[in-house]
């Protein structure tokens, strides 16, 4: 578990970092918190020749509310997100999700930008980012662009980012009136990652579900919106029975992944159960 | 024995400050000038013929000092031996070369070694060693390995059968089964005891230094038993024993995995001799998963015969024990002597007929893992007692009570022929049931599931064998050593004491408990006592730390040595006080003539006089130290009752452990904090076997659970606060009255939790047997297979 040799750069600005990425092309890898990259380097599953550590670039971390959006710097750690007062009030789903990532050491080092960029199919944030309709802001040689979460996660460990692009910020909407959100997770007993993780954002009106957004992680090769569930929820007064009925569609249209711990069939079942639970909890929080 | 101040006191572990503040020195911390680093090239295949090894590219890598293959070791390094040659079992001991020459037999089998200036260079160069393999079919399951046509691992071992070991009385057992079939119950069940990975926090590490001038070899390494290591190092390397010094510096846990003598230490010693450089090798975690021994891995078919009133009359069964690719140091003894001999547990089961097959497979060798054989035995008996209770619709506590060995029957000779030293099983069970409020829980359970959660209560009343052990007895089991223990208690002129023990504690806390014992015996402040262990140059021959023997056997040697010191000190004190020795009283570090406590000589004054030697009684030698070699007359048999309370989520199959009560009887307790600590650690590992852990191989022999991201090492948040308690039944033959507590937690807890989950499912009408680990999917499948709606309450 000793990584292959690599060259290390510690750029002071985003511009400098992009310059390094352009220069070294496929040989280069961005390093943020290192909690996804270093483990695979130690197993020599990744052997980048050049490491571009963006950790010393100022202005890439921190959380600020900005009208109807909350902007979170790419280098903001899971721990900072879990504890942030602004997020707790304006987008509690993200704080709730951050709180169940890994363990304290992981939350102290790991960053939201790194988690999004790594796109592990069992990572927690992607469920929330999808359910929230978050935007990922990236800067590359050609300037800044904003990628909707729904277009960002392309497949397992693959995103819409170009190798020369750096995520600088993620934006999530402020929780609207009458809306509640919840994240429910079945952690893998070994890795702590989500066997199934479901983020639900539910808007209630007159005791009925007006809209719902359900993000699911851990189940398929990439995180997805459970659109069949969302549709089935609309217009329902949410109780155990109606929620369960809608949640039964949680793995519809995806190919549930199986492993030693949970078969695909069982994951699909868990997806339904955790979707039901997330929906009911979110609905109970909708005020 | 007078109960004095420190025996029984809750003293915090003296070793902890250095351990938890990063000031302890482990093997990998060793720095010696000129140190080179070894990396062992390992087979990526489970079974293959080595056609060719090309080391030239590796040799040319920057920083490489040397590269060696199995051929270089041939004739220099002898095969790695096994040390437990169980008799009457047709044991096969195929050679185990330190580095494979023709054939690799498991993923991780060493084929070459690179020595380089630093660890990185060694690792990079190792990747340049080219090995041409002809891949052979592999077999990982022990029953498949014995089937006709299975790939054979070793030329002279038909059917891959390493041994067949039988125990009991077939005829009487058959008769008991006949009777039960007619007029009682017979239950048969297959039990799997899955393979576990020990996961000591510190991986294995070796630093070897050979001085070609003096011919001295010093090896610092992660061993639980430095003297056995020296003995075997001498056998394997051919170097004379007196020229070898083995040092176990701080050792970060072992759980049995650091008992064996591995090929790696011999390889590193070879490298140090050949290169003339001190050489360090430290396995990384992935290597640790592949090459450090695994534990358990039994398949058992077990039958029980019982009368309608719950009296168990016989056990009959067969176990297939997976031994891995080679016999590890204690490999053959674990599933036989330490397992089969404990099968009837704490019950008066008169008849037994049991066979154990030891089987070679293309997997990592299997050896002792915390509990070593007894967890497997306890799992079988405690599960099957529950099945008897369920079948007869009796309370599992009542069935246990009915079959307990009664207190007036001790010493009790079990059907296996062991003499249990002492026991009183009923009170421990009563205490456990009272602590958990068993009756209330059963009532609650009768009211049915609440919020979709099924309540389950599981019992485990265990007895185990500790304090290994009387040398002549272990010798008769084929163990190639004695299991007595040594101690030296040395007072220095200022009456500070150094205590040397042949055991080798590595986290168990004996630096504290041994000092407590000596402090009491000699009336010294505990801070004046140092406990030294783990260095063959400092400590007389001893057999190390495992089998919950350290306090039982090593502690006994220490107390005997301390008493010898005290006797000699009393002689000198009598002389100084001008009194007869028989009139001398010793109390809290002071010697005085009976009736005149004011005129006393302190142990400090006496010690100084012993060293000055100006005025010693005739015939008394100067200085104050004594040694003792203690060979126990019997094993010890700790016991207890554990209760697990679980809730099974009917919707997901997820098991939540709600409460855990452990009432243990390990005889007299020297330090309750340390006993609790041992129990807690054991519980975590035992419960994790029930719920989380399990090593898995693919059919091709690849370890699927090859990292901690796949293999579920338990974490603190997975457990409730443990509720521990004790009863105290001293061992009658042990000078300290102690029985050992290092493994009880692992031994008792696995069946307690599995019984609790089975109980939860049974309360819901589901009787499917589940194999460990009890993952949500397994429980859910059982529930789903016989689905009923869970009514909300
Ligand atoms: C023991 C352990 C347990 C864990 N458990 C969980 C868990 O339960 N749930 C969970 O979701 N995650 C878990 N993780 C992963 C953790 O959350 C990681 O921190 C996270 O996935 C990656 O963030 P990072 O900052 O560490 O990124 P790094 O490891 O530094 O980088 C990851 C990848 O993203 C790229 N990258 C990083 N930052 C940027 C950027 N700003 N722009 C573009 N590319 C970038 C890197 O080049 C790299 O490819 C766990 C990790 C460990 C070690």
Automatic annotation (TrEMBL), chain A:
Membrane spanning stretches: none
PANTHER family: XANTHINE DEHYDROGENASE SUBUNIT C-RELATED (PTHR42659)
Segments forming domain FAD-binding PCMH-type: 1-177
Molecular function via GO: FAD binding; oxidoreductase activity
Protein name (record): Xanthine dehydrogenase family protein subunit M
Annotated organism of origin: Candidatus Segetimicrobium genomatis
Keyword Lipoprotein part of the UniProt annotation: no
Keywords: FAD, Flavoprotein, Oxidoreductase
TrEMBL record, chain B:
InterPro entries for the chain: Ald_Oxase/Xan_DH_a/b (IPR000674), Ald_Oxase/Xan_DH_a/b_sf (IPR036856), Ald_Oxase/xanthine_DH-like (IPR016208), AldOxase/xan_DH_MoCoBD1 (IPR008274), AldOxase/xan_DH_MoCoBD2 (IPR046867), AldOxase/xan_DH_Mopterin-bd_sf (IPR037165)
PANTHER family: ALDEHYDE OXIDASE 1-RELATED, XANTHINE DEHYDROGENASE
Molecular function in Gene Ontology: iron ion binding; oxidoreductase activity
Keyword Ribosomal protein listed: no
Name of protein: Xanthine dehydrogenase family protein molybdopterin-binding subunit
Co-factor(s): Mo-molybdopterin cytosine dinucleotide
Swiss-Prot/TrEMBL keywords: Molybdenum, Oxidoreductase
Organism: Candidatus Segetimicrobium genomatis
């Amino acid at each position: 578990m000793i990584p292959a040799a690599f060259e290390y750069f510690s750029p002071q600005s985003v511009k400098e970092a992009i310059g390094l990425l352009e220069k070294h092309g496929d040989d280069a890898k961005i390093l943020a918190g290192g909690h996804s990259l270093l483990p695979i380097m130690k197993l020599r599953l990744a052997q980048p020749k050049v490491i571009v550590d963006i950790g010393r670039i100022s202005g890439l971390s921190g959380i600020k509310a900005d009208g109807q959006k909350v902007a979170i710097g790419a280098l903001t750690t899971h721990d900072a997100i879990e504890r942030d007062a602004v997020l707790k009030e304006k987008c509690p789903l993200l704080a709730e999700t951050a709180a169940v990532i890994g363990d304290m050491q992981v939350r102290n080092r790991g960053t939201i930008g790194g988690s999004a960029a790594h796109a592990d199919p069992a990572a927690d944030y992607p469920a929330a980012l999808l359910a929230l309709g978050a935007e990922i802001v990236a800067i590359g040689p050609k300037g800044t662009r904003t990628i909707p979460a729904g277009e960002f996660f392309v497949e397992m460990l693959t995103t819409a980012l170009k190798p020369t692009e750096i995520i600088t910020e993620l934006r999530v909407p402020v929780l609207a009136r009458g809306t509640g959100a919840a994240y429910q997770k079945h952690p893998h007993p070994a890795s702590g990652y989500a066997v199934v993780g479901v983020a639900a954002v539910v808007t209630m009106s007159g005791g009925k579900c007006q809209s719902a957004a359900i993000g699911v992680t851990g189940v398929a090769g990439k995180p997805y919106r459970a659109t069949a569930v969302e549709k089935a929820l609309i217009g329902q007064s949410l109780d155990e029975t109606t929620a369960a009925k809608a949640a039964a569609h949680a793995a519809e249209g995806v190919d549930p992944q199986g492993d030693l711990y949970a078969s695909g069939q069982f994951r699909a079942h868990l997806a339904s159960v955790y979707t039901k639970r997330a929906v009911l909890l979110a609905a109970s929080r909708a005020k | 024995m007078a109960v004095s101040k420190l025996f029984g006191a809750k003293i915090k572990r003296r070793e902890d400050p250095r351990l938890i503040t990063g000031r302890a020195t482990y093997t990998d911390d060793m720095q010696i000038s000129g140190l080179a680093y070894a990396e062992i090239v390992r087979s990526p295949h489970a079974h293959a013929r080595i056609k060719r090894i090309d080391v030239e590219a590796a040799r040319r890598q920057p920083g490489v000092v040397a590269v060696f293959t199995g051929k270089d070791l041939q004739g220099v390094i002898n095969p790695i031996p096994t040390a437990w040659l169980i008799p009457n079992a047709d044991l096969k001991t195929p050679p185990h070369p330190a580095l494979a020459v023709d054939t690799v037999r498991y993923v991780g089998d060493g084929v070459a070694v690179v020595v380089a200036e630093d660890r990185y260079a060694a690792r990079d160069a190792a990747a340049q060693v080219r090995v041409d393999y002809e891949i052979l079919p592999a077999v990982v399951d022990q029953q498949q390995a014995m089937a006709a046509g299975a790939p054979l691992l070793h030329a002279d071992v038909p059917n891959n059968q390493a041994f067949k070991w039988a125990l009991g009385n077939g005829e009487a057992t058959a008769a008991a089964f006949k009777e039960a079939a007619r007029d009682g119950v017979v239950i048969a069940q297959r039990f799997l005891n899955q393979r576990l990975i020990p996961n000591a926090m510190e991986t294995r590490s070796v630093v070897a230094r050979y001085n070609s001038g003096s011919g001295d070899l010093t090896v610092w390494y992660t061993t639980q038993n430095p003297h056995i290591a020296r003995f075997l190092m001498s056998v394997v390397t051919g170097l004379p024993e007196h020229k070898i010094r083995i040092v176990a510096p701080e050792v970060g846990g072992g759980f049995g995995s650091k008992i064996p003598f591995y090929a790696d230490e011999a390889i590193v010693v070879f490298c140090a001799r050949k290169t003339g450089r001190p050489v360090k090798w430290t396995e990384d975690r992935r290597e640790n998963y592949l090459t450090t021994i695994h534990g358990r891995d039994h398949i058992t078919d077990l039958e029980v015969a019982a009368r309608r009133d719950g009296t168990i009359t016989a056990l009959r069964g067969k176990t297939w024990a997976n031994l891995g690719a080679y016999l590890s140091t204690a490999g053959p003894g674990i599933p036989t002597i330490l397992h089969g001999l404990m099968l009837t547990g704490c019950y008066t089961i008169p008849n037994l007929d049991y066979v154990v097959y030891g089987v070679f497979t293309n997997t990592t060798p299997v050896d002792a893992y915390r509990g070593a054989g007894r967890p497997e035995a306890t799992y079988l008996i405690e599960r099957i007692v529950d099945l008897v209770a369920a079948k007869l619709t009796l309370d599992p506590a009542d069935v246990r009570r009915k079959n307990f060995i009664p207190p007036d029957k001790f010493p009790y000779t079990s059907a296996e022929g062991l003499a249990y030293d002492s026991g009183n099983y009923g009170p421990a069970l009563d205490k456990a049931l009272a602590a958990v409020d068993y009756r209330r829980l059963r009532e609650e359970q009768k009211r049915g599931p609440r919020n979709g959660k099924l309540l389950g209560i599981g019992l485990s009343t265990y007895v185990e064998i500790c304090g290994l052990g009387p040398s002549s007895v272990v010798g008769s089991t084929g163990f190639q050593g004695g299991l007595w223990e040594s101690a030296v208690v040395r007072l220095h002129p200022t009456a500070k004491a150094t205590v040397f023990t042949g055991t080798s504690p590595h986290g168990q806390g004996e630096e504290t408990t041994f000092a407590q014992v000596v402090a009491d015996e000699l009336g010294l402040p505990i801070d004046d006592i140092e406990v030294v262990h783990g260095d063959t140059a400092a400590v007389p021959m001893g057999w190390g730390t495992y089998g919950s023997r350290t306090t039982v056997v090593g502690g006994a040697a220490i107390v005997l040595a301390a008493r010898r010191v005290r006797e000699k000190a009393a002689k000198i004190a009598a002389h100084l006080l001008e009194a007869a020795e028989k009139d001398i009283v010793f109390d809290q570090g002071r010697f005085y003539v009976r009736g005149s406590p004011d005129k006393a000589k302190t142990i400090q004054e006496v010690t100084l006089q012993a060293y000055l030697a100006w005025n010693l009684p005739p015939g008394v030698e100067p200085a104050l130290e004594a040694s003792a070699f203690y060979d126990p007359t019997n094993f010890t048999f700790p016991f207890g009752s554990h209760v697990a309370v679980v809730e099974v989520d009917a919707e997901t199959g997820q098991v939540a452990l709600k409460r855990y009560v452990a009432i243990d009887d390990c005889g007299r307790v020297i330090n309750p904090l340390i006993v609790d600590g041992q129990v807690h650690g054991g519980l975590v590992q035992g419960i994790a076997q029930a719920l989380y852990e399990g090593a898995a191989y693919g059919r091709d022999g690849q370890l699927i659970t090859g990292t901690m991201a796949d293999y579920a090492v338990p974490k603190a948040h997975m457990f409730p606060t443990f509720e521990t308690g004790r009863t105290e039944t001293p061992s009658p033959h042990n000078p300290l009255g102690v029985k050992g507590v290092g493994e009880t937690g692992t031994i008792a807890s696995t069946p307690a939790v599995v019984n609790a989950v089975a109980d939860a499912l049974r309360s819901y009408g589901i009787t499917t047997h589940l194999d460990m680990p009890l993952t949500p999917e397994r429980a859910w499948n059982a529930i789903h297979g016989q689905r009923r709606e869970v009514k909300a309450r």
